[in-house]
């Protein structure tokens, strides 16, 4: 099968397209023919020797977001059958090999693809949507009437987090460049803050939950404490809770939590239902062929993407 591999960590140029052996499903696993693979910040960070690089072995096939069709099922699989359209974030943080024509993973890490979406849009969802959902629902327990601040709201995780928080009945404050504000308001943001023109802590009042998708850049994590009510929560997604954040949070009576997304087919099923109901939509800025994975990484690293980037895996 075709796959995008890297033999050593480095810049986008280390990504090469070649042929590797097709995986075979073990008992309880399914073989999925990949139609599209999402591209995420963890992908290019890992490629560069950061992110999840320490958990991987070279040579490596990157990619955790996939949407495709079940080709074969292993012994014992009862929930899926050949021909089923599925989407998933399998194995994370172990390697999943999503930048390829086929992947194998436990059947119960896959959910049925939202019927209203094509594979490109569906492949943009799993990692970003699960990050937003698990952070807001499972970690923060967001409830109606709370105020939720989402940093980097125009990105892959951020634009879904805005919609989930709104669905949960929260008042949503979103930080993003001014050019994204009208779009974010369409998605449900009640307030928008241009972080390039004004410090967010000067532009909004106290909040109950901060979903920090930026981290230590410009002190965003520590500065978020100053707008969080005592007893409130800062969910620190990139890099976890730094010593500086932990100290600031403790002094202010604010909770700070590290977070890492996990495979979660049940949540993906719920998310598919929200998509079907029209409560959530995913933004794909650009879909590129598998052979242009390096270009997708270059664009992603510019930090100017609205929503997601996706690789299309066409049969050869």
Automatic annotation (TrEMBL):
Residues 294-316 are annotated as: Disordered. Keywords: Oxidoreductase. Residues 10-311 form the Enoyl reductase (ER) domain. Gene3D superfamilies: Medium-chain alcohol dehydrogenases, catalytic domain (3.90.180.10), NAD(P)-binding Rossmann-like Domain (3.40.50.720). One of its GO terms (molecular function) is oxidoreductase activity. It holds the Pfam family ADH_zinc_N_2. Residues 294-304 have a biased composition (Basic and acidic residues). Signal peptide: none annotated. This is Putative alcohol dehydrogenase.
